[in-house]
Fold this protein.
Amino acid sequence: MNDIKPAKSPLLPEPTLRRLPWYLAIVSTMRKAGIEFVSSTRIAEESNVDASQIAKDLSFLSIKGKTRIGYEVASLEKELREFLGFMESHRAIMVGSGSLGAALIHDSGLQRYGLDIVAGIDVDPSLVDSEIAGIHIYHPDDMERVITENTVTIGIIAVPANSAQDMADRLVEAGIKALWNFTPRRLRAPKDVVITNTSIYSHLAVMYNRLHQQ
Amino acid sequence: MNDIKPAKSPLLPEPTLRRLPWYLAIVSTMRKAGIEFVSSTRIAEESNVDASQIAKDLSFLSIKGKTRIGYEVASLEKELREFLGFMESHRAIMVGSGSLGAALIHDSGLQRYGLDIVAGIDVDPSLVDSEIAGIHIYHPDDMERVITENTVTIGIIAVPANSAQDMADRLVEAGIKALWNFTPRRLRAPKDVVITNTSIYSHLAVMYNRLHQQ
């Protein structure tokens, strides 16, 4: 049982992959508003991305726009959702279920975008064997077993920065294929392990600096 | 009463601003481990960033490393924290206090990094006038008043994508100086308003695509 389809998608440039969810949000809003067709010019206005860039980004999909009519909104939405992997179920474990980890477990948006958090891990005795939003929290001693039993492929790291690399090493050892790192520590892992960094606090640093210019 | 210091920091390149919090996490771990001095070579090993790049990034700070000894760990940590604005208090309002918004309100890490969420906003009648982690949730009708009364400078947007631009417009109108956008919608705002995008779901799209290559 593996939820990851083998080599379905082409290797896309990261900027394209980051923009496609913007287009998805736009066409999703349009579909709900009853709009049937959309041109790349219209998506350009809504997204502040060049129309030619949008056409290029969408060319990775199998859907084609019609001259003068554009893309069929509902089909484009469905195809984007499938293409981005949001329709599949990717099993993940939340390593560190304190403040930020618990927050992410609570975010039902992740589920809608194809991320299925099957368990949480924490050292805090008051959390171990409790449930957060219906997700069971285990002690780190049980981590490898939980990963194997649930064929988990993604490890989300939300532990204190000084434990991040240790947990990453254990996750990789246990067979995890991707690490989603929410700590400000850069992680080392073998080349075949995907590392995605979401440095919320780094974004704060950028925002503060820009604010201080005003 | 304004928590934002005027033009204190120089305008830094965004990549530098994103890396500085990594170094902070590293030296913070070292200080807790009782390490007194650190070289840029040592930070390089921990961060996977070039030692020369690290020296360049740290040259924006007033602290100087000593030949053969390196930087004093505790001073470097303190200076990074101050330089990045993490020691100040930046008042923010959470617009959209549902799943992701509530999650972010719960994350005490934001407070430690200088973000003071003073109120939440939501349309949901079951949330209005409730409290999430001690933060009062108001109806959108009260948003402008809450911003003015609390001299809020940062608007965090965690509403459904189709309301994001409307809320952004109202925030800007109410005098907000920075928008932290967690929705997949790109926002338009006047040039003097800082926009920071944290597209958690875009990161998922990148991760899934890379996973499918394996």
Remarks:
- Chain A touches chain B through 75 residues (CB under 8 Å).
